[in-house]
Amino acid sequence: MVYFALFLALLSLVFWVYVLFDVIGADTARVRLLPKPVWALIVLFLPKVGAALWFLLGRPPRDPALARTEAGPVSPFPEYEHPGRARAVSPEEDEAFLRRCRERAEEQRRRAREIQERESRERNEREHGDRGAPEREEPRGEAGDPRRDRDGDGDPIGPSS
Fold first, then answer.
1. What band does 161 get if pLDDT is binned at 50, 70 and 90?
2. Which of 46, 100, 151, 154 has its CA 20 to 30 A from that of 84?
3. Cα R_g (the chain), whole angstroms
4. CB 35 within 8 A of CB 10
5. How far lies 72's CA from each of 61, 67, 75, 76, 83, in Å?
6. What is the pLDDT of residues 128-139, one digit of tens each?
């Protein structure tokens, strides 16, 4: 019997805390009969009676948009159900948005490919450098060509005399 009384006391406490949070979280303009601060005081000082009165007399009516769960199937795109959601006014705006998204995605793909290519080249250069592979031969040009004439005296490699 004692456990049952403790269970009921705990249940009553949980219900009271729930109702107190419900009063605090309720929309001030939609609360019925009394102002919201008065309801909070009633629920705070008269836990059981105040909670019951809140549910019977003061709680705002349910929003019809939330109560329409039985009206039909749930939308597969719940983000479209949000009020105030930004929507395109015309099909042209929608197409422009999609075009910008595609362009941005293509730019990101291009940058990713460039980064991958650069990393691949750097990795190949490191691997060739670590193995002691012979260096690539420089293209030969004519006299006076900066690729050939490195120190200005006409011979491709070696000290000037």
1. very low
2. 100
3. 38
4. no
5. 21, 11, 9, 12, 19
6. 875 554 555 555
